[in-house]
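The data are quoted verbatim for completeness:
=====
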Amino acid sequence: MNEVNKSEFWDNLYKINSVGWDLKTPTPAFIDLLKSEYFADKSKMLITGCGYGYDAIAAAKNNFNVTAVDFSETAIQFAQSLAKKENVKINFIVEDFFSLNDDHLNSYEVIFDYVTYCAIDPSRRKEYADKIYQLLKTNGVFAIILFPIEKRIGGPPFAVDVEEATNLFSEKLELVVSTSEINSIKPRKGRELLQIYRKTNGKKS
């Protein structure tokens, strides 16, 4: 089994502070999304692979009802402590995203992913797309910042092919936005793409 499928792999990285993906601040493009038309009139949000919880806390401060999941207990413990300091309530879950139970089905108006898709075993990407669909409410939106868009060997992060990702998510969701014109941090500029999908009644299950 690929080591990225094991919670111990991720927890160890957090324990030794080998978390190069961590921005130590909310994702700038996510802050913009919180104020966007795509998130308007929506409240219940799921953040996948939430890490230290910076994005989850930012969403909670913007009046979203946030559930945030991560495979690492160490990351979630830090996130819970930070949320307490910031005086916000967030439902943090230590869990394999793929194992979220039926209580979460058709539950979320917004799902956000940044550096989770590139962290999972690439052989499970279709399974990931299917799970996103199952968790979204009808008319809910899935926002993902695809990264790293480049040719690279190994991972994580594993290389992301935009066409492959678009085809996977578009099987059941409607693509409404695809743009590289986002507020990227300098080292990632030109290597990432924001996509927003919507779950509509017309899509097959």
